[in-house]
Design brief:
With 228 residues, the chain is α/β, with parallel strands linked by helices. It has a single domain, classed as Rossmann fold (3-Layer(aba) Sandwich), CATH 3.40.50.300. Helices cover 34% and strands 26% of the residues. The chain contains eight helices and nine strands. Strands 5-6-7-3-8-9 form a six-stranded mixed beta sheet, sandwiched between helices. α4 packs parallel to α5. The protein is globular, with a radius of gyration of 17 Å.
Length: 228
């Protein structure tokens, strides 16, 4: 899905938290959104997902100013986990689709959750629940996939499993946008990166170029501080 932002702003309590002049997400690209806490990353995903409305400006999807029905899969930073098994959580949105059972079992094994498939998802660890939520989002096979901090509660070994799932389950037609506090994760997964500072787009471009040779002084400071 091609996604265009045109002069979008969003405020809470009179404070502007997001103000982006323009940006285009290309069809089937994978984009990382990075920046300090409070820079507007989560707000951007919520506006794109249609969960919240922009105060001004427009978000267009394939040239249309309204989100096509069932075309977006969104995982919030604190995803809701249903009071059912890991398997049932993951298939909740795809049951009845072609090969849904085969797909679910394959991704559960790939993510290292095979031994927990029948366990109640509310009684497993925070990292395992996070993996369950990521898989539940990915299996929807939507045109637009939005992941807000998909590896927040996941350790290094499990992070690799989740990243492999994101890579292998991305369909050619899907546009993926994810937020992360980890520039290294952006480097491993994304084609392009957006750097937000105080709600504004500080810079953007190919992930290798931006992260290895940032042109914005604030981006340089952010990356240097992260490496400490």
């Amino acid at each position: 899905m091609k996604l265009e932002l045109s002069g979008i702003t969003k405020s809470y309590g009179g404070r502007v938290v997001l103000d982006i002049d323009s940006f285009t997400f290309k069809e089937s690209g994978c984009y990382a959104v990075i920046g300090p806490n409070g820079s507007g990353k989560s707000t951007l995903l919520k506006l794109i997902a249609g969960i919240e409305a922009v105060d001004w400006g427009c978000v267009s999807y394939n040239g249309v100013a309204s989100l096509p029905e069932k075309s977006v899969a969104f995982m919030p930073q604190k995803p809701y986990i249903f009071d059912m098994s890991v398997y049932e959580n993951i298939v909740s949105g795809i049951r009845g689709n072609k090969d849904w059972d085969k797909t679910a079992k394959a991704v559960i094994e790939q993510a290292g959750l095979g031994s927990l498939a029948k366990s109640n998802a509310r009684r497993i660890s925070g990292g395992e629940a996070q993996k369950t939520a990521v898989l539940r989002t990915l299996v929807l096979n939507s045109e637009l996939i939005l992941l807000d901090e998909p590896a927040t509660f996941i350790d290094i070994s499990n992070m690799q499993l989740i990243e492999n799932c994101i890579k292998t389950m991305r369909q050619d037609k899907s546009t993926v946008i994810f937020t992360t506090h980890n520039p290294s994760q952006a480097l491993r997964l994304a084609d392009e990166v957006l750097v937000l500072m105080d709600g504004k787009l500080a810079e953007s471009g190919p992930v290798q170029k931006v992260l290895n040779s940032p042109s914005c002084a604030r981006t340089k400071d952010f990356l240097n501080n992260w490496r400490i």
